Amino acid sequence: MAQSIMIQGTASDVGKSLICTALCRIFANDGYRVAPFKSQNMALNSYITEDGYEIGRAQGVQAEAARVKAITQMNPILLKPKQNMRSEIIFNGKRYVEMDAMDYRENFVEKVMPEVEKSLRYLQEHFDVIVLEGAGSPAEINLKARDIANMRMAHLADAPVILVADIDRGGVFATIVGTLALLDDGERARVKGIVINKFRGLKELLDDGLTWLEQETGIPVLGVIPYLDVPIEAEDSLALSSLRLKQAAKGEFAIDVAFIRLPHLVNFTDMDPLLEEPGVGVRAVTTVAELGSPDLLILPSSKNIVHDLQWLKDTGLAQAIVQRATKIVGIGTGYYMLGATIMSEHNLYKGLQLLPLQTMLLQQETKRQVAGSIIATKEQIVGYEMNIGEVTLLNGAIPFIQLADGHDNGAVSEDGHVLGTTLHHLLHNRHVTRRMMNEIRQVKGLPFINEQLQSDEELRDQAYELLAQHVRMHLNMEKIYEFMQMEERHADG
Q: Which domain of life is it from (predicted)?
């Protein structure tokens, strides 16, 4: 039976996911077979497993860090927010139902708890270590009775809990003491250590506060982790508010890339590789005034294509996109918007008319990992589909990608300036992204960048290793192993 550790937080976005990712890699480096687990995740970024199931992106990333295949048991419930307090529920990797928040809490949670526990037990039987991640805070009084993501999971897994707080947002001592004060005796007894995250400054200036905190709570501070800007995918579009978009002074970057920040934007990690391209600035756009004349415009995927297409028209962005962008890439449902028409069961909507295609929206979503090649350049690519439409290419359409199964995917305009595909993570094929940027450089009379490229897989692995080394340096792993009643093994043998 696996040993467990659980990371909970004083609030959302304190860094729980990244610390879990680091622990997954640390335990894996120490020779243990590790699985992440989050019973209930709420996120608009998802991860498609090898067998075509959908889980939260954070658990997929954590599985990669642990060097194991992601499976549905790692995140049995994924909530994908829509609007009016409703969410699409992904249960055991498949779309289950749409439900409002009250109905979910009152009728769904207890019904599925046996299956959630079954997922946890499966991981315990097949792995050495389970790294559990909480959600939000365990001290939300109005939610505790139906909370299945925090202390209830800690009790089921018999896991010691590490409480993480974000010092960057201020009030760190109050949030820690307040959180602990709102836990009942059994819950508080599970909290074995405190971690202060995202620290900037001299730790010596914090020492008096740490001494007081340990005396006040009786719980040891296991680490103060300095802020680290590490290129690991964010879990949700909420993180766009703090994303390191390269919105620098005008003229600082040779290539200007803009993406439309749709009201129902999903899978925004499709743009991540652009943040790491040298000489490329990336900015989010919500108005015509912000759009300007970018060298490349990304129309990303939307969870509500009908609403967001109308929003583009109402804001004037639809017309501006057609008139101003030099090169346009549509991804996921953004690809559908570039076409002539989008049809649902009862309605017909006019697209942006930039590609000769029509899309019929379907009730069932196709989810799978895919491979293929770009037809014009023969470049090999991999990605994943979350396809909710059946696309028909009209006369004059040029297919963009040929998949390994022989089917075509996507379309490209005759002049090559507009292209689209249902494949997410197209730009994570770094050689494709570099070629596209060099094509823009050529048009602008700029020198090419020809430095050797690493694959996206190599870059992700380096990021996991960097994060693990950083966290291990500042976290008392000896104590964590002691709480888990396990032997600490060092990666160096």
A: Bacteria
